[in-house]
Request: fold
Amino acid sequence: MFGKKKPVYCDERLRHIAFIMDGNGRWAKGRGMPRSYGHKVGAKAFKEAVKYCSTIGLGHMTVYAFSTENWRRPREEVDAILALLDEYIEEALADLAQNDVRIVFLGEKTPFPDALREKMEHLEAESANNSLILNIAMNYGGRDELLHAANIAIAEGKTTLTEADIDAHLYTKLSPPPDLIVRTANERRLSNFLLWQSAYAELYFTDVLWPDFKPRHIDAAIRDFYARKRNFGGH
Ligand code: IPE
Ligand code: IPE
Ligand code: MG
Reply:
């Protein structure tokens, strides 16, 4: 029998998986299509990934959707990504009762158009009582996050900062650090993602381009994770 493999369920060793969703542009280029088409199909893969993660006992999921550096891309590509975000927010609002997902946006919202920013805030508020935390990194940069956290602590009157002061003001403050960071599309770098939180994360790289990334690929990453031994500097 060629039955489907049973999925691996997450336990206390794997509370948080973060995804660097890379390769949309190359996926589209390979098909002679505009980059925006890659983002469109990538958005579908993202929704499928969220659905899958909500069935395997995961508590926290983070996706890198748009970096502080991605504003350097052509205007029409940025606009296409923002339009997909808008569409996703509408769908997520309509699905809140069925999907037990709490959405948190990581990053400053001020650069977004007012209407979009308000929708982002509305979705965060409306989903606040749901249980799977889905952090969507949108205008996110690890360096921006650290400066933001440090500046809040300074504004509170602190002159010497502790790790706890930084932790308390991270955009990801509702989540533990990621246990596993998955990056698609054959790139082996963090690109300014979760610089503080990734200190002891397990890193998993795959050649699969994000629009082709399926639940079975998540399952493969999780199996790989469980075969590893983490030391956290101990032994
Ligand atoms: C990831 O895919 C999505 C974003 C960064 C917004 P890319 O758009 O970076 O795709 P490639 O890396 O150019 O193939
Ligand atoms: C990282 O991908 C950001 C996201 C996936 C949103 P990039 O495609 O922007 O990263 P670089 O430029 O190749 O490092
Ligand atoms: Mg890329």
Remarks:
- The mean pLDDT is 97.
- Residues 133 and 174 are 8 Å apart (CA to CA).
- The beta strands are 16-20, 60-67, 101-106, 132-140, 180-183, 202-205.
